Amino acid sequence: MRLVIIGGGILGTAHALAAVDRGHEVVQLERETEARGATVRNFGLVWVSGRSADELAITLRSRQLWEEIGGRIPGVGFRPAGSITLVRTEAELAVAEAAASGPTAAERGFELLDPERVRAVNPALRGKFLAGLHCSTDGAVESRQAMPALRAYLESTGRYGFYAGTEARTVTGSTVLDDRGRRWEADLVLVCPGAAHTGLTRELVGDIPVRRVRLQMMQTAPLGEPLTTAIADGDSFRYYPGFAGPALDTLNREESQAFTAARHRMQLLCVQRLHGGLTIGDTHEYDEPFAFDVDEAPYDHLTAVTEELLGRALPPVVRRWAGVYSQSIDPAAIVTRVRAADNVWVITGPGGRGMTLGPALGAETADLLNL
């Protein structure tokens, strides 16, 4: 078959990879010269630890696929680093204990570590904390270099073409017309628009059950030592359904987040890039219109928490950014797939799970459509 995939982010590229791996030909169109949305404005985490029980199977499948992809495409920068969620209060510790003894703990690779064992796993953590929930199945990729690496691999097959700076204007039947007047014929059209819910997306499928979420993040200069795992703080328990339960209810009832953290719906996630710097975030904002500028208070809070856990000052911050991603509002939907016509689908809304689940979602779509 010949597929036209509209959208050059992780979801579109993962679908291209799934199709090419099954022997099909793919043309991928991206309106920017390079993916510039949530695909590159993230941690690069392959995050198993907090996924809900219903999402665990597809998350573990995606984790396995990322490891396989990293083996054949080293440029994506996959590493099975794991993560440690560091807890600083008794209420947070209760959530970690419940997770470590839960029915899916073994599948996730959960183990609750005392401070001495935390430092044995990740010696950079010399700060203040009561314990750490280690998740050995978590991983990371280099989000800013993964898409070019994947495309280079796809192009080497001879069955793939990437057209940057090309905006799809209309989809009529099996024909895509772009803004340069070119016509692309396809047996199947997959539209992966990310957070672009208007324009072509709305023309094809109207208003769909998704919303946009804004976040703020930052990156430091090289740390000067290895951070051997990703790290998170106890606030992250609030944002991942895998930690739901009585202990989390108690945490939410008894311990309000600091004003800044609560106002910006914050958690700490921190990943070391291959160049040594740290990507640190993030915030959650749901009500549009979103601000066009960034707020400094969240950065101050994240810096303070990270320094408390590391027990040292952070290197200088060299970049700050905001991003917007698409999130399905149906709690039962991991991604929103809407059929616009017999051979046209719109696929978006994985939320903050796009990098984690991209390969598995691409493979799942290929299975659903019998590619």
UniProtKB/TrEMBL annotation:
One cellular component term (GO) for this entry is: cytoplasm
Cofactors (names) = FAD
Q: Which UniProt keywords apply?
A: Flavoprotein, Oxidoreductase
Gene3D superfamilies reported for this sequence: D-Amino Acid Oxidase, subunit A, domain 2 (3.30.9.10), FAD/NAD(P)-binding domain (3.50.50.60)
Keyword Repeat on entry: no
| Alphabetized GO MF terms | oxidoreductase activity
The FAD dependent oxidoreductase domain extends over 3-368
Could you tell me which InterPro entries the record lists for this protein?
FAD-dep_OxRdtase (IPR006076), FAD-dependent_OxRdtase_HpnW (IPR017741), FAD/NAD-bd_sf (IPR036188)
| Family indicated by similarity | Belongs to the DadA oxidoreductase family.
> Would you tell me the protein name for this molecule?
FAD-dependent oxidoreductase
